[in-house]
Amino acid sequence: xxxxxxxxxxxxxxxxxxxVRELAKEYGFNDLDQSRIVQSVSELARNVVxxxxxxxxxxxxxxxxxxxxxxxxxxxxxxxxxxxxxxxxKSESPAVSDGFGFKHVRELMDEFSIRDNEGKGTYVEVYxxxxxxxxxxxx
Length: 139
Known about the structure:
alpha+beta; Heat Shock Protein 90; about 40% helix; about 30% strand; Serine/threonine protein kinase; serine/threonine-protein kinase; HATPase_C_sf; HATPase_dom; transferase
C-alpha cells in the first residue's frame, strides 16, 4: 500500500516525519534505521519547501526478490535542477554546501536516484532494505 503526504510548508515536514517513523516501525525497521529514514525524508522534504515550494512524498513497502524494504519518492513541482550531475558533483566537495542534503541522504539510504523532470520539478527515489531477519544490512 502506498501512502502519500503533500509538502507545502515547513510544518508539513514535522507531521511527515511522524508518519514516516510509524511506517518504518510497522515495516520492521529497527530504531537506528527508522532515524536514518526519517532524517532522509526530512532532508528531501526541506529541499521541496526551500527550492520548489510544493511537492509530495510517496512511501510504500516493497519486495524485490528476497529483499523487503521501503521505497520513498519525493517529487516536487518546482523549476527542477538544470544540471543534476553538477549538483551531485558539488555535494561531494567539503567546501560547497549546495547539494549537501543529497549527499547526506545517499549516505543514510541504501539506494538513491534523482532526475529532473524537464523544468517541471525534481524526482528523487530512495530505498532502505531490511535483511531477511528484519534487521539492517550494511551495503
